[in-house]
Amino acid sequence: MMTFYSSMAVYTNPGRAEKPSEAKIRDLDEQIQFIKRGIGYLPDSTLQIGSSDGYTLSRFRTAGVKRVLGVEPGTASVELAKRLYQIDCIHSSAENFQTEESFELILLTHVLEHLYHPQVTLTKCRQLQNAVEEGFIYVEVPLMAQPDSLCPGFFSFEHINYYTKENLLQSLIQAGYSPISVIEHFNSNLSPVIGVLASTKAQNHYLSLHTDPIINRKILTEYRNKEITYWQGCLDKVQKQLNKSKRIYLWGAGIHTCQIVANTNLLERCHIDGLTDTSTLKWGLQQGDWICQDPATIDWQPGDTVLISSYASEKEIFDSLTWLRKRGVTTLRLHNIDDSRAH
């Protein structure tokens, strides 16, 4: 997993020239106000574990936080944070980072679901705040809701844990935090999300929480069956066009390429000639039977087809491939959904 994060993981879309999406800007507006409302003010110091390209911390700094620091395992993301936003980061993982500083506010937005031992990290956060009079933590994760609320690809390689409202609150309480405020969204993002603001001081707002593993298992089973049907159905819709292709390339060396291969009979129906992606980090890396290539190095020919596997960035990728279509290359959208929402 650390090899993936340090070499392949990219959380900024090259098509946006490294700028945040409108959804990301909107989400940060809400997070800052949600935390400020829940506490009554913004604390002076903030540590973000999993700080990505530094945009989140830059927004908190602009909002008035005096000291910000990130923790980020991705080499490219650490460099981006410094170059784009002048944000300093500890280049390490959530499990291994060390700091002598204390922080009033700790942010873990879409991090806990990636960790093999999330409770260890939450306990570590709590210990970092022993020296402050009152510490706060804001945690946001994908919400495991009812199957019909979950988007295609909800279960992905890099997500190890899945949270309901009940087990997320339990996790925070067991680590020594007391929840203050909870926010849930089902339609504003591709995946349902839940955010929890909690304090190191006892609040006693949630006294009895019950997690039912039987209900959770039922949700997982129903969603998994729905997921396989969905991916195969998407492939079936473009199969005739694929059959006419001279060569077929998959666009996107990542999670959704894995999922179309795993969840459909694509490889039984088609010969895939290659894999390509605009991310320089992925060029030369092997995924399945293919080595990811720089699209500029491929001898594109009329009659070739590019199949875009991405769900979240499908339209952005499609819009950026006008140059291929001018060469007579067919660019197929697997999901064909115009959706500007973000994970």
From TrEMBL:
GO terms for biological process: methylation. It comes from the Bacteria. GO terms for molecular function: methyltransferase activity. It holds the Pfam family Methyltransf_23. Keywords: Methyltransferase, Transferase. SUPFAM superfamilies: S-adenosyl-L-methionine-dependent methyltransferases. This is Methyltransferase domain-containing protein. The lineage of its organism: Bacteria, Pseudomonadati, Pseudomonadota, Gammaproteobacteria, Alteromonadales.
